[in-house]
C-alpha cells in the first residue's frame, strides 16, 4: 500500500481494504479514475461511486450501477371482476371498457375519477355501480348556488313555494328583501309586500 506523501493518505488502488479507503477523503475525480482503471461504472454521484469502490475492494466484484426500474402495472384485459389498480389513471382502454358496459354517453367526470382513485382493490363492477349512483345523485341533488348568485337562489325558492305566481311578483319580493338588513333568502313573510302593493294599486 503506497502512501501519498503530500496528503499523508494511502494511494487509491486495489491493495486498499474498504475500511481504510472510507477513512480518507478522495476527490470525485480520483474515484472516477480508479473506476476507469478497474472497469467499474462511473455513473452516479460521489456517494454512489464511493459505495461501488468499497464493495469492489472488499469482494473484487463490480456492483451494478443500474437503477431499479419502476414497474408499471399494465391492464391487459378488463372485465367486471378485474380489480381497480393502484394510482388509477384514465386511459383509452378504461374508457372503452366503461363505454361498452355503460353506454356511449359515458365520460370520466371528476366525481367518478375521484371514486376510482380512492377505491383501488374494488372490482370494476363496483365501479360501474358507483357510476350509476353518482349519476343518480346528480339528478336529485339540489344545485348549490354561490352567494354571488343570491338573486337566482331567491327566485328559485320563491317559485318552489309559490307555483302560479309571476316573475314580476317574484322580483317585487326580491327587491323588498334586498332592501332589508340581514340575509337575503326567501321567506313566506316576504309575500306581504305583494299584499301591500295590491292595496296601493287599489287606492290609485
TrEMBL record:
InterPro entries: DUF6434. Pfam families: DUF6434, SAP_new25. Residues 76-133 form the DUF6434 domain. This is DUF6434 domain-containing protein. It comes from Longibaculum muris.
Amino acid at each position: 500500500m503506497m502512501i501519498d506523501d503530500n496528503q499523508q493518505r494511502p494511494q487509491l488502488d486495489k491493495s486498499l481494504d474498504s475500511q481504510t479507503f472510507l477513512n480518507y477523503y478522495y476527490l470525485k475525480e480520483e474515484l472516477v479514475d480508479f473506476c476507469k482503471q478497474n472497469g467499474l461504472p462511473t455513473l452516479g454521484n460521489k456517494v454512489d461511486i464511493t459505495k461501488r469502490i468499497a464493495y469492489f475492494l472488499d469482494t473484487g466484484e463490480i456492483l451494478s450501477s443500474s437503477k431499479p426500474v419502476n414497474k408499471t402495472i399494465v391492464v391487459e384485459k378488463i372485465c367486471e371482476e378485474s380489480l381497480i389498480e393502484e394510482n388509477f389513471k384514465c386511459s383509452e382502454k378504461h374508457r372503452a371498457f366503461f363505454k361498452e358496459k355503460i353506454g356511449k354517453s359515458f365520460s370520466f367526470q371528476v366525481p367518478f375519477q375521484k371514486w376510482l382513485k380512492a377505491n383501488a382493490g374494488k372490482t370494476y363492477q363496483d365501479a360501474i355501480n358507483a357510476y350509476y349512483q353518482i349519476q343518480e345523485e346528480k339528478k336529485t341533488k339540489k344545485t348549490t348556488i354561490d352567494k354571488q348568485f343570491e338573486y337566482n337562489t331567491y327566485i328559485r325558492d320563491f317559485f318552489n313555494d309559490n307555483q302560479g305566481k309571476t316573475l314580476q311578483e317574484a322580483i317585487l319580493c326580491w327587491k323588498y328583501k334586498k332592501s332589508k338588513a340581514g340575509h337575503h333568502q326567501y321567506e313566506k313573510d316576504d309575500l306581504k309586500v305583494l299584499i301591500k302593493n295590491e292595496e296601493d294599486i287599489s287606492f290609485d
